[in-house]
TrEMBL record:
Belongs to the LysR transcriptional regulatory family. GO terms for molecular function: DNA binding; DNA-binding transcription factor activity. PROSITE patterns: HTH_LYSR. The lineage of its organism: Bacteria, Pseudomonadati, Pseudomonadota, Betaproteobacteria, Nitrosomonadales. This is PCP degradation transcriptional activation protein. Residues 12-69 form the HTH lysR-type domain. It holds the Pfam family HTH_1. CDD domains: PBP2_DntR_NahR_LinR_like.
Length: 310
C-alpha cells in the first residue's frame, strides 16, 4: 500500500476515521451506527468516501456483517492510535500524588522554610515521589518567576492582581523575643525599656515578605538602636541566647525559635501594621491538578498557624 498518512490526513475528514474505527471494531455497519448514534445509510456514505480515498473496498460483506480487507487491517492500527492521541489531548490532565515524581518550586524566605516547610513535608508522607525546592525572591522577581513558570507557588504579602491568584493564609502578628534569663526584660516589656534596648533587626529578601521593612520603620520612629542587622532568621535564636539584644519577628518564627532556644516571648510595646500572608500562584497553573493539590495541602496545614493571632 502506497498511501502516505500525511497525504491522507489532508484529504480525510476526522469524522470519517472515527466511523472507520467503529466499523473495524464492530465488524458491523449497524452496530457501528448504534455506537456512534448514526444511521446505517450515513455509515455507508462515509465508507464510500473512504473507499475513494484509499482506492480499496476496505470492508467486504459477510453473512455476519463485514470483514476488513488487507488495506483496512494495515490502516486500522494507525487510525486507532491517532484517534487515541487526539482523544487524550482533550481529556482533563490527571495527577496522582501517590505515583507522581513532580518537582514543585516554592518561593519563600527562610522564615517559611522554618515555619511552614516542616508542616508541608509531614503532610507529603503519602506522596513519596513528590519533590520540593524553595527559592528566596524579592517581590519583582517573584512576580516574574510565577509568570514564566520558574516558581509554582510563592509565600508573600505583596499586592496581588490578575493574572495572579492568592489564598490568604492569615494575618501573622509580631512578637518581641529575648533570651529567657535576660537581666532586665523578664515579665513584660515597657515602651521605655524597649526604646533603651539594643535591637537585632532581620531584613530577609524573600518572596515579597516585608517584615524587616515594617519593623525597621517602627524602631526608627521611636529612635531605638539597631545594633545588628542580619539577612536571615536562622542565626537570631543563637545570637539572642548569647547577648542581651532584643528582636521583633513574626509570631510564627518566634514560637519556632522558642522550641529550639530558651527564649521569652512578649507582645511588642509598639504599634505595628497588620499585614496578611498569602499563598500566590499564576493563572497558568490555576487549573493544574498538581498545583491545586499542593495548594490545598499548603492551606490546610499552615492556616492554623495564624488563626489564633498574636
Amino acid at each position: 500500500m502506497k498511501h502516505e498518512i500525511g497525504t491522507l490526513g489532508r484529504r480525510v475528514d476526522l469524522n470519517l476515521l472515527v466511523i472507520f474505527d467503529a466499523v473495524y471494531q464492530a465488524r458491523s455497519l449497524t452496530e457501528a451506527g448504534i455506537r456512534l448514534g448514526l444511521s446505517q445509510p450515513a455509515i455507508s456514505h462515509a465508507l464510500g468516501r473512504l473507499r475513494h480515498v484509499f482506492g480499496d473496498p476496505l470492508f467486504l460483506r459477510t453473512p455476519r456483517g463485514v470483514a476488513p480487507t488487507q488495506v483496512a487491517d494495515q490502516v486500522a492500527p494507525r487510525v486507532a492510535e491517532g484517534l487515541s492521541i487526539i482523544r487524550s489531548s482533550f481529556e482533563p490532565p490527571r495527577f496522582d500524588p501517590a505515583t507522581s515524581t513532580r518537582l514543585f518550586t516554592i518561593g519563600m524566605a527562610d522564615i517559611g522554610e522554618v515555619v511552614q516547610l516542616p508542616l508541608l513535608m509531614k503532610a507529603l508522607r503519602n506522596a513519596p515521589g513528590i519533590r520540593l525546592r524553595t527559592i528566596a525572591l524579592p517581590p519583582t522577581q517573584a512576580r516574574a518567576a510565577l509568570a514564566d513558570g520558574q516558581v509554582d507557588l510563592a509565600l508573600s504579602n505583596f499586592p496581588v492582581k490578575a493574572p495572579l491568584h492568592e489564598e490568604i493564609l492569615g494575618k501573622p502578628g509580631y512578637a518581641t523575643i529575648v533570651r529567657r534569663d535576660h537581666p532586665t526584660l523578664r515579665s513584660r516589656i515597657t515602651l521605655a525599656a524597649f526604646r533603651r534596648a539594643r535591637h537585632l533587626l532581620v531584613r530577609p529578601a524573600g518572596a515579597g515578605v516585608r517584615h524587616g521593612e515594617v519593623i525597621e520603620k517602627a524602631l526608627r520612629a521611636i529612635d531605638a538602636t539597631i545594633a545588628i542587622q542580619v539577612g536571615h532568621f536562622f542565626p537570631v535564636g543563637a545570637i539572642l541566647a548569647k547577648t542581651d539584644l532584643v528582636a521583633t519577628v513574626p509570631l510564627g518564627i518566634a514560637k519556632s525559635m522558642a522550641r529550639l532556644v530558651p527564649l521569652g516571648i512578649f507582645r511588642p510595646p509598639i504599634k505595628l501594621p497588620v499585614t496578611h500572608l498569602s499563598l500566590v500562584w499564576h493563572e497558568r497553573y490555576h487549573g493544574d491538578p498538581g498545583n491545586q493539590w499542593l495548594r490545598e495541602i499548603f492551606v490546610r496545614e499552615t492556616r492554623p498557624l495564624y488563626e489564633q493571632g498574636p
